[in-house]
Structures are given as structure tokens and as C-alpha cells.
Design a protein that fits this description.
Structural class: alpha+beta
CATH superfamily: Electron Transport, Fmn-binding Protein, Chain A
Helix content: 10-25%
CATH class: Mainly Beta
Shape: globular
Radius of gyration: 20 Å
Order of helices and strands: HEEEEHEHHEEEEHEEH
Strand order of the largest sheet: 2-1-5-8-9-4-3
Oligomer: single chain
Bound molecules: flavin mononucleotide
CATH topology: Pnp Oxidase, Chain A
Strand content: 25-35%
CATH architecture: Roll
Number of strands: 11
Number of domains: 1
Number of helices: 6
Distance between the termini: 28 Å
């Protein structure tokens, strides 16, 4: 049998952006939180974040991680400034039919520009919080910020938020209480800046039975 050899890479010996590109191609596919916020002054903001995941089931809690902006001042992105000021956000699922709008909303435009308008997205008010919701998004979660955690050694800050309510398009909610994730058609991010994917084939795996696992030891 031919075995490929393993290459070992040390982040501190790699080119500056290389560990980011490598890591994002490994921790993939990543769902995209399409995050709506509002500043204390009332300016609305929308931007996607793929350093994102669920971190607790009850109370339902999600996180996303914001890096510093490299290209211009201020280094702090509007989303992070807003969640610090107001403590609320809406996280939408970025779906394939809204991919173009999601990309437009990621443009690094100065504060004061409204990404909802730039991306021609219709909006509706949230129920519990001030940030707006995207009308066309099939799934949105209104969240209250619970923790803001600096990621040691990096320019990233992790924002954790408790889901106050879920908004789900009716045809996506199944009788078993789950969303039909395949039908939702999320786009997910791979490595680097331009690689994305859609959900592939759905497969089922069994739930591990500890007794059965231990019985295997005896065989
Ligand atoms: C699909 C996608 C995922 C992104 N994920 C992140 C992320 O996880 N963290 C981050 O800081 N920026 C991420 N970005 C870049 C931000 O969306 C971008 O910097 C945006 O301009 C920030 O907007 P703001 O200043 O209005 O908050 C991502 C961009 C795209 C297109």
C-alpha cells in the first residue's frame, strides 16, 4: 500500500496570512452568520461571519468571531462596535438565493453606509431587539449578547449571544422540530476568500450505544 507522507507546518514559520487560509480550508465547511446590528446612534449594519457556530443548546447560544480590519481605520469593525454599544444582533442564515446580497454586505464600506440599502434588501423590525431583520431570509435568530471574549494572541473577538427567538419560514420547519437543512439551502464557506459550497448528500449515522461499544472490547 502506498502511503502519502505527512507535512508538519508551524504557524509561526508560515507567511503572515497562510495559517488563516490553511485553517479555514480545514475547519470547513463553515456556516455563515449574516449579522445585523445597530449602533447606539441608530445606524444599521449588516455583515457576514463564517467564524460562527452554535455553542450551547439550552439556553440556545451562538458565537461569531470578528477580526480587526486590516485595510483602514478604525480597525474595529462596525459589527463589533455595535454589539459592544447595544448588546443585540440578529443572525440570519446565508442561503444560496441571497449569496450575491451577502457578498455585497461584506464590502468594507465606511460607517454610515447602510448595507441593507447597498444590497437592496427589504427589512422588517425584530420583535425583541432593535437590529433589523432581512425579510427574505428563511431563518433568523434574534440574539442578546451574553459575552464578548478576546481570543488570546489574535485580533479576534468572540461574541456570544443567547437566542431570544427563532424566525423560521413555515415550509422549512419539520414535524420533528428540526429545520429541513437541505431545503434551507445554506451556502457554507471553505478555505481562502472565494471558495464556498452547498450541502451535499444527506447521510444518516447511528447514535453510539455505549453498551454495544464496550461489548466490542470483549470480542
Ligand atoms: C462569507 C464571509 C465570511 C466572513 N467571515 C468573517 C469572520 O468570521 N470574521 C470577520 O471578522 N470577518 C469576516 N468576513 C469579513 C466581514 O464580513 C467584513 O470585514 C465586513 O466588512 C465587516 O463589516 P462591518 O465593518 O460592517 O462589521 C467575512 C466575509 C465573508 C464574505
Amino acid at each position: 500500500m502506498i502511503r502519502s507522507s505527512i507535512i508538519t507546518l508551524m504557524p509561526e514559520e508560515m507567511a503572515p496570512r497562510a495559517p488563516y487560509h490553511l485553517l479555514t480550508s480545514i475547519a470547513a465547511p463553515r456556516p455563515i452568520a449574516w449579522v445585523s446590528t445597530i449602533s447606539a446612534a441608530g445606524e444599521h449594519n449588516l455583515a457576514p461571519f463564517s467564524f460562527y457556530n452554535a455553542v450551547a443548546g439550552f439556553p440556545p447560544t451562538i458565537m461569531f468571531s470578528v477580526s480587526e480590519r486590516q485595510t483602514r481605520l478604525p480597525h474595529t469593525k462596525d459589527t463589533l462596535r455595535n454589539v459592544r454599544e447595544v448588546g443585540e444582533f440578529v443572525s440570519h442564515v446565508a442561503t444560496e438565493d441571497l449569496a450575491d446580497e451577502m457578498i455585497i454586505s461584506s464590502a468594507d464600506v465606511p460607517p454610515g453606509f447602510n448595507e441593507f440599502e447597498l444590497a437592496h434588501l427589504e427589512i422588517i423590525p425584530s420583535i425583541h431587539i432593535r437590529p433589523l431583520r432581512i425579510l427574505a431570509a428563511p431563518v433568523a435568530m434574534e440574539c442578546r449578547v451574553t459575552q464578548i471574549v478576546p481570543v488570546e494572541g489574535s485580533t479576534n473577538t468572540m461574541v456570544l449571544g443567547r437566542v431570544l427567538c427563532f424566525h423560521i419560514r413555515e415550509d422549512l420547519l419539520r414535524d420533528n422540530g428540526l429545520v429541513d437543512t437541505v431545503k434551507m439551502e445554506p451556502i457554507t464557506r471553505l478555505g481562502g476568500s472565494i471558495e464556498y459550497t452547498r450541502i451535499g448528500e444527506l447521510i444518516h449515522l447511528p447514535v453510539a450505544d455505549p453498551d454495544e461499544v464496550l461489548r466490542r472490547l470483549e470480542r
